[in-house]
Amino acid sequence: MTNIIDPIAEIDEARVADQDVVIGKSRIIFRRFMRNRTAVAGLFIFLALFLFSIFGGFLTSWDKDTIDPLNIGMPPSPDHLLGTTQAGIDLMALIVDGTRTSILIGLIVGGVSVLISAVYGCTMAFFGGKVDATMLFILEALIMMPAILVVAVATSGSGGLKDLPSWLLLIVVLLFFSWMGTARLVRSLSMSLMQRDYVKAAKYMGVPSRRIVWRHLVPNIGSLLVLDFTRGITGAILAEVAFSFIGIGIKLPDISLGVLIGQATGQVSSFPWMFWVPLTVMFLLTGSLAMMNDGLRDAFDPSSSSIGRAKTKIAKKTNK
Amino acid sequence: MSTNITPAERLRDAGLYAPGDAVLSVRDLNVRFNSENGVVHAVRGVDFDLMPGKTLGIVGESGSGKSVTSMAIMGLLPETADISGSVRFKGKELLGLSDKAMCKHRGNDIAMVFQDPLSSLTPVYTVGNQIIEALTVHNPTMSKQAKEARAVELLRMVGIPSPKDRLKAFPHEFSGGMRQRVMIAIAIANDPRILIADEPTTALDVTIQAQVLEVLHTAQEETGAAVVMITHDLGVVAGMADDIMVMYAGKPVETGTVEDIYYNPRMPYTLGLLGAVPRVDTSDKQSLVPIEGTPPNLALPVLGCSFAARCPMVSDACLHGEPELIPVPGVEAQTLGHKAACIKAEELSGNADAHKIFHAPPKPVSKFDGVARVERQKVLELKDVKKHFPLLKGALIKRRIGTVKAVDGLSFDIREGECLSIVGESGCGKTTTLLEIMEFHPDQVGEVVIGGVSNKVATDHKTTMAMRKEMQMVFQDPTGALDPRFTVYEVLAEPLENLGMPKAAIRKRIMELMKLVGLQPDHVNRFPNQFSGGQRQRIGIARALAVNPKLVVLDEPVSALDVSVQAGVINLLDQLRAELGLSYLMVAHDLSVVRHISDRVAVMYLGKIVETGDVDDVFDNPRHPYTRALLSAIPVPDPNLERTRERIILQGDLPSPLDAPKGCNFATRCPVFAALPAAKQEKCLTLEPPLASEGAQDFACFFPDGEIDADMLVVHA
Amino acid sequence: MLKYLMKRSGIYLIMIFLTTSAGYFLAVSSLKPAVLEQEKIPRPTPEQVAASFRGLGLDPDLNPWERYIQWLGGIITRWDWGRSPNGAFVNAEFADRVLVSTRLFIASIILTLIIGVALGVYSAARQYKFQDRVITSYSYLVHILPAPIAYFLVQLGAIGINEAVGERIFFVTGISTPGIDPGWPAFVDMVAHYAVPTFAMTIFGWAGYQIAQRQYLLDNVNADFVRTARAKGLTRNQAIRKHALRVSFIPVAQSIAFTIPAIFTGGFFAEAIFAWPGIGLWSIQAISLQDVNVATATLAYGSVIFAIGAILADFATTLVDPRVRVQ
Questions:
Q1: How, if at all, do strands B445-450 and B378-393 pair?
Q2: Helices (H), B36-162
Q3: N or C, which end of chain B has less CB nearby within 10 Å?
Q4: Residues of A whose CB is below 8 A from B297
């Protein structure tokens, strides 16, 4: 307390000005994630599939609309790396297209539903009282509705929604039913955060509510939202496959992994590659996401075992 | 360990255990845990002998290894722990026994009472079931009726009213104090020879603590068990223990009789601890003894004396080799023999002054000290503030079934440079009072005036902001009060940015603040979890001071801190008040801290102030029976005094504010009321005593200084 | 207690009413049975179609609100849930469909529950050991496998066994063989039909319970009250068995009550894959036949089951947790 030397303070001021600290925080999480090998492997598989779904078309000279009359229902060959369908269409081209649809559905549903649940949940927690009670009632009523029926009605009906492409329709419907659970979580988490002493302290300092939400609430529920994003992607991809498999999700001419798997069920014994290849791709996709999710959870979890090492490293860095 | 048994020990193994021998002897007990940061050596060579019927107090701060020691004795440590040494019960080695073999001893020969009564009972079984379980385990042949009768007897012994009916109650239907009584009943069910109590009263209010300590005393008398009392509170063991073992960094650093330790400490750490505790019974207005620094990291090897880094008497010799626990030179051996692990033990003989050795700062002098109270300005004034919560029932349509009067007509003021403390049991409304003041809203019942601004006119943002600049708050839990995602810089910048201060000025102010609260300015880039509890509380104080307030509201500012750290924070608060001319409004349950830091005190009971005045007047001459009971419940770290003084033990818990009676709120538990003749009792039951001035202080009682009911008075001779 | 349950039932009744009404509007505005009628041979005129639908209470010329009032009136006054475009009464077929679904799910629900909870306890007791890793990894694997594909894979396996043996041991679809003799042959036939769906739903169903039970038990094995029990003289295993296990049942009981309706209403996949004409399959068929009334009725059934599950969850919690027992 008495041995303060001014130069130290000056160096320190310079460091604070560099905003070195803020970068440090995301760096900790990134480092913890990268330390988890499974998670990194998951990330690589996912990225590879993502790239495949965009640029995979270059791996084959065929496209999904062209019939190869010389190779109808052929197993994998140098000409058709993954074989062809019984209609003579290159399976590789179909898989590229289907993977893209599945990833697209996953990303959009995962992202938008997290956004909806964050806004809805925070609103409930922040206003409380009657607003909260009403919004909670709506939420629970929506949870009560069997989602699958609504999916079926919306995608099979002949109403105005019918004009949308089936993948977009499925996205809308999946979105409608995917955000309630998270919204409830966000609500209870924000409510408990608002009771924290540091939020009270900010309030007693006269910090405006908007700022409190932005600076204290959002960063603290951020980890929940990121985790829910990856979970949401997995959920949407699985739902798409399940619905399309029994014929109420994506409809031809749109192609998705679910459609490809579903179509192939009739000829598993005669055209096995048509069934197992898209199934494997789906497994890689959902599996890689599950692996990433695991690593993300560890990276965000303050009580995770890897935090100890991360903390000492940071401490050493700032100590210098 | 078992390979080098001495012949004498072999004799004891053969059953030649003499009754006069120790009932429990621990030799060279070491416990290691694997952790992320390497192997933590949590207990490093503990030796002690516990004589039948005696009480050993193990004193230490968090992380000193005292609880791990007790768990190792009980065989309750996880399998992954590496335990070595020897623990002998009546000569029989307990270490290395299988879980099953150890079960014959646990609960039968050695029983234990844990710290947190709220989580220590299984929520889904009745209390009776859990007591009977303890009987069944060790007496499988006992009949059901006999077990039930014994359970009732046990509950009666620990002072639970209508024990027969309460057997069928579930733990959640009991208060914390009552649950701790049940825990004691379970522990003594099989007349154990040894009773280990691990911080049994830490989670409880002082009045309840007094009750539970009394129950423990009774339990010991009834069973004749030897007691190991583990605590961080030097007051709690002063009156109970025969011997004391002080632990630091996993090792006993001083052992001896109670008198040895309290009146003739030979280890600087013990000396510092004793000086760090404020006293409730004296008005010594000097600083507390601060012990700077933090205990060593036990994942690293300890090369020299483990206390060297914090010891003011440290010399080069202390850094080479850890000192052994050896008999203090020049003291004749008693039960345990007075031993200390310090090469300077001899230098400390006689009347060593902790204040001098630890360089305690002089008591700071404030510019207001010489000014009479009436001449100072009021910084805070409360006029008849009330906070009533409606108690509702029903899910859809809510019916009001009553009113909880959490704060019921509070009026007081705080002048410049003074500290007012509100004291009382949890649930008395003291925290609600703070929240009401901090809320500062025109719709409140009653008037709150802060720095001349009344809540009644605080309708716009500007007025509120002006008031927020006048008053800031320090929270109880230093960890919860700091956003874990903020660096210290961001924490301290928040109030300043809110005032619209320019960046350069903020930076300068933060550096000032860091120095002001005794933190290194180059630590501003760290996160809160990289600091110790005491340092975090200093950050909290710095944040409160950032906007230069006149009044700081302190909500239990030191109750979450270890004793040695607590002293440093209290000294800092003292110093800041004097230097900056601050006023404090403090809520605290520790009356010793209150006495040390405050000028004035207000005692609250069920939402009302029952006594208020200058702290010395109230503490030296309490008039209201509740104040008298509260003060007498505080244990003092002075064995002789503690053994002989009279104690008022209040009956029962704080009643719910809902059941507040018509007359005096306190009548249901009042020790004076209980002794009054029926004619006078009538007055207490029908009229509410007003808070009136008499003598030096104000109090609300018709029969001050009345005779105390004999049943509620206890003296241990 | 009873009063509390009544009140909860009241709230759920309102919710069921709202969701069913919302479902009706969705169905009535997107399902147009007339379009299908036009594909019939000989092709009926629009007037004929409208007239026949008017007779069934499905007048396509009324606006959704008028049809809703008509439909609701039928339910309230006569408990009549309306008719299909082919003239069949919803009420008449409903009971059969519910019975088929219940028969399909009941065995697997019980098995799933017992196996899931048992494996959860077993894996928690062997945390991080080989058995735990295998059991828990399996449960996580099931999570990334869509149910219909999982069932289909089991079907493939059963067909494989049939082919390998050269005899039809298992039926992979349908409820029973038509025209089978009663008695022993009928029983064998029933078992042969039951085996595959029950097996499939069980092995892919217990994962959720296993993970939940394992987690809740692990949360409790180091609880203070377990330590107290050990301090009394119980061994670690006894203390966990008597104290931690019982407490860990509290959240599990709650989730079980909630997942039972999810199995019933989420059973579309199983019914579709194994071709059991239960309520789930009915609803899908209804939608492809543009049948407004059947679609709404199955949706209402789903909501009712959910409400029953929620009330059951409350009830289960009060049963295992004395803290929430209403005095």
A1: antiparallel
A2: 66-74, 99-103, 127-138, 144-157
A3: C
A4: none
CA–CA gap between residue C8 and residue B396 (Å, rounded) = 10
**Closest listed residue to residue B611, CA positions, set B421, B334, B405, B356:** B421
| pLDDT attached to residue A25 | 57
Is the CB of C283 less than 8 angstroms away from the CB of A149?
A: yes
Whether the ω angle into residue B689 lies within 30 degrees of 0, i.e. cis, is no
pLDDT in tens, B259-272: 888 888 888 898 88
**C-alpha distance from residue B710 to each of B239, C27, C191 (Å):** 21, 80, 80
Please give the DSSP secondary-structure letter assigned to residue A296: H
More confident residue, B166 or C317: B166
Residue B202 · residue B173 · CB < 8 Å: no
Rounded to a whole number of angstroms, the distance from the CA of C239 to the nearest CA of chain B is: 10
Helix (H, G, I), strand (E, B) or coil at A256: coil
Instruction: Tell me what the pLDDT averaged over chain B comes to.
Output: 84
For chain C, how many helices (H) and strands (E)?
15, 0
Cβ pair B583, B600 in contact under 8 A: no
Tell me: pLDDT of B150 over 90: yes
Residues of B with Cβ-Cβ distance to C1 under 8 angstroms:
none
Contact (CB, 8 A) for B204 and B180: yes
Round to whole Å and give the CA distance between B67 and B60: 9
Q: Do C268 and A246 touch (CB under 8 A)?
A: yes
Nearest Cα residue to B201 out of B74, B76, B114, B123: B114
| Contact criterion met (CB < 8 Å) for A201 and B473 | yes
Return the residue of C nearest to B114 by Cα: C228
Cβ distance C98 to C297 under 8 Å?
no
Phi, psi of B338 (to 5 degrees): -80, 115
What pLDDT is attached to residue B474? Answer: 92
CA distance linking residue A129 with residue A123, whole number of Å: 11
Single-letter code of the amino acid located at C177: T
- Taking the Cβ of residue C231 and every Cβ of chain B, the question of whether any pair is shorter than 8 Å is answered with yes
Q: What angle do CA A251, A257, A263 make, to 5 degrees?
A: 60
Distance, in Å, from the CA atom of C285 to the CA atom of A246, rounded to the nearest integer, reads 12
* A214 at interface of C, judged by CB pairs closer than 8 A: no
Residue whose tokens read 């603590």:
B209
CA–CA gap between residue C78 and residue B16 (Å, rounded): 92
Residue-level pLDDT at B426: 81
Taking an 8 Å cut-off on Cβ atoms, the answer to whether C18 and A141 are in contact is: yes
How distant is the Cα of B427 from the closest Cα of chain A, in angstroms? Answer: 18
Q: What is the Cα–Cα distance from B158 to B181, expressed in whole angstroms? A: 6
Q: How far apart, in whole angstroms, are the C-alpha atoms of residue C258 and residue C313? A: 6
For chain C, say whether B527 makes contact (Cβ under 8 Å).
no
- What amino acid is encoded at A67 in this protein? I
Identify all chain B residues contacting A309, using CB atoms and an 8 Å cutoff. 36
| Contact (CB, 8 A) for B251 and B306 | yes
Distance from CA of C137 to the nearest CA of A (A): 12
pLDDT digits 0-9 by tens, A209-222: 888 888 888 778 88
**Model pTM?**
0.80
- Chain A nearest-CA distance from B242, in A, is 40
Reported confidence tier of residue C211, pLDDT bands at 50, 70, 90? confident
Model pLDDT for residues B375-400, shown as the tens digit of each residue: 888 889 998 888 887 776 654 445 66
Per DSSP, A7 falls in state H
**Phi then psi dihedrals of residue B446, to 5 deg:** 95, 170
Burial class (CB in 10 A: 0-12, 13-18, 19+), B485: middle
Tokens describing residue C251: 């959240």
The ipTM value here is 0.82
Q: C15: nearest CA in chain A?
A: A141
Across the interface, which of A204, A312, A318 has its CB nearest the CB of B525? A318
Q: Which residues contact B599 (CB under 8 A, 6 or more apart)?
A: B418, B419, B420, B614, B615
